Amino acid sequence: MLDQKEIEQLQEMCKQNRRNVIKMANNAKSGHIGGAFSAVEILTTLYQKIMNVDPAWDKSADFAKRDRFVLSKGHASAILYSVLSQKGFFPQEELMTFRIFGSRLQGHPNTHLPGVEVATGSLGQGLSMGVGMAMGLKLDKNPAHVFVYLGDGELQEGSCWEAFMHAPHLKLNNITAIIDRNMLQIDGDVEKVKALEPLADKLRAFNWNVVEIDGHNLEEVYEALTNAKKNLANTSAKSRLKTAIKKVEKAVEANDKELAVKAFNEANSLLDKALTSNLKHKNFVAREKARLAKKVNSLA
């Protein structure tokens, strides 16, 4: 949880990043200001409070263990550059070379710049790259986490949904997809170009844990991203919960009320924790509590 001082510091950083984006676009006489502005609070919080990154980049001793970030909506590069310079990856003076011929800060990110993992801008590709990174990290037993920032317009492309399907299939709990639901794309209103709603339900159907927040509320952003990165611990908690539920069911089958009540209390406690840590949706917790209580109460 952020304290008031941290909130104020982040607010000031966000203001600085918005000023930088305007100055950069004005100096270059081009740039995607709206797409950059909608990502300010999330990227600022990610780099300042959530991600394990070192401005020394590939010279860092723990370079391999860094968290990875993929800006799938690469046209919003101005905010990424501002956040990277704010973190110390390169001098802030270089921001004024944005979109200038020969600059490292081109209209879409590329790997010539420290802090950039992959070149992006061809929409619909970022999540697939992020899933590939997460797969590699798992194989290497690397604890790093992958964050992918997507625009909502690019979700109209099938490649995104292949990646949304593949990550849960491989049980990749080391990747977080952040969707910028600003409802706009180059051709207009996203829902009029090609409707995505009910988007959250579609993602849940693909077995993603969906958390909907106000992307400009720093406290909501921090809590959601912190919980997302803790997903490894959440997976362990899910396993304990499943085990506890099975204990209740086995005790009921054995007609052992004393053991069933004890197991039920343990499961109930874990269900309460699941509710507060957002492991499962509220309706699942309520349903499981009622189901288990009915089983235990059926015993003589």
Overview in brief:
The protein contains 12 helices and 5 strands. It has 300 residues and is mostly helical. Helix 1 (4-28) crosses helix 4 and helix 11 packs antiparallel against helix 12.
Number of strands: 5
| Average pLDDT reading | 89
What is the H/E order? HHHEHHEHEEEHHHHHH
Q: What structural category characterises the helix and strand content?
A: mainly alpha
**Which segments are poorly predicted (pLDDT under 50) over 5 or more consecutive residues?**
232-237, 276-280
As a percent range, the share of strand residues is 5-15%
What does this structure look like?
The protein is 54% helix and 7% strand. It has helices at residues 4-28, 33-37, 40-50, 77-87, 126-139, 158-169, 190-194, 199-205, 218-229, 231-253, 257-276, 282-297; strands at residues 68-71, 146-151, 175-180, 184-185, 188-189. The strands form 2 sheets. A 3-stranded parallel β-sheet has the order 1-2-3, with helices on both faces. α6 links the parallel β2 and β3 (175-180). The longest helix is centred in the first third of the chain and has 25 residues, at 4-28.
How would you summarize the topology of this molecule?
Layout: H1 4-28, H2 33-37, H3 40-50, E1 68-71, H4 77-87, H5 126-139, E2 146-151, H6 158-169, E3 175-180, E4 184-185, E5 188-189, H7 190-194, H8 199-205, H9 218-229, H10 231-253, H11 257-276, H12 282-297
Parallel strand pairs: 1-2, 2-3
Antiparallel strand pairs: 4-5
Record keyword descriptors for this entry.
two-stranded antiparallel sheet, mainly alpha, three-stranded parallel beta sheet, elongated, 300 residues
